[in-house]
Amino acid sequence: MRPHVELIQEDDYVWHGAELVAGEGRASERRLSVDEEDGSSSLRVDFHTDWGRGPGIHHANTEYYVLDGSMTYGGREIGKGGYVYAPKGVPTDAITFAEGTRILHYREYGDAGFDPVDSLAHPRRPDAREDVLVIDSEAMTWDAVPNPGPMPGLFIKYLHVDPGTGFYTRLVHAQEGWADHRLAHHPCYEEAYTTQGHMEYNFGTLDLGTYFFRPARIKHGHFTTMEGGTTWLLRSDGELFNWYTQNEWVRWGGEALNYGPGEAPLRWSMSSHDLGSGAGRRTEKDIADLVAALEYQREQGAVDDDYTQHGQGTDPSLLALAKAVDAARLQGGHGPGHSHEHEHDDHGHEHDVPAVDWGVDPAALEHADERTDAHAHNWGRGRVWKSGDPIPAPILSSLPVRSRSRGRWDADGM
């Protein structure tokens, strides 16, 4: 499975020699994320010379997207925004890249293998599906997304959609001021590379060259798009449904052993509510944008709750702890002075378990086959989901790969 990357600036990756089999020329790659089980990879590739290779068959569903420079496929030259989708098992035409070209390169459900063939007349592999797709995305128009979310100003260009699996690749643009105060998780993985602009959210700063890969069901949010809006190339391994929550909290404990001089030691127990106050909190403008998003949702008739900035009001984790302690006492029925020096079978009274409202039974949020299907070992793999199915519980990842230069943590909503 691929690791959770949330999020990283590409400059924090090292360069490797590009793994482009049977090609002529020099190129380097940054490995944004890699699945070590099947070879699936998301890569940033720079071409140091003209580079090319002839017709052949890829071992993986393969995508090329030009950030700068030019790509020629089958004699057709495309500049910035050029996109080629080459399904595995399908003969593809010759492809070349000009010196200095920068691309995003994806391989899915297979490795970097490439088998040269004499021509496009070579037979397809028996399990091959779909056809090669060549697009000039710069010539496409932006379409408003079908479900605009909390605020208007979100637009999309579809590059490829697999009709069988729902896997899709698209460009997404959020206008300045687009904001979402909720947290979301999805039945599919979601990855994105920022091609333009600036967005802030609780896991960091999304600006040019930042990347994330979220396995299925990982919670993420809140979002506020900054000056000039922002654009990503975004991919998912299935149809993307949004399941929203908000005003969430996490509590954890630990012993600080190696904190440096002048740094405050970690308290025995902290919560995200603690981190939401002070210097790490959102600005007044950010909060105003999030409140405006909430009001817009209500105007559209959506079910929503008030937005509360973490660090303000009562810490909800303390309320949950108090509820748990109270429930334990009610189940036992004993005060602090009660002696336990007797056999419980003989003391002549019974205890009714109190009906404590915890919001929802976590087991009710799981698919029946969640941990028993062929991919049970991979919690982050996307599952096919349709309206009416149980909504799977989210995963809260506490150990994502993080960027040295762009990542930040203010726990707003987590």
UniProtKB/TrEMBL annotation:
Residues 330-355, 387-414 are annotated as: Disordered. It comes from the Bacteria. Residues 338-354 have a biased composition (Basic and acidic residues). InterPro entries: DUF4437, RmlC-like_jellyroll, RmlC_Cupin_sf. This is DUF4437 domain-containing protein.
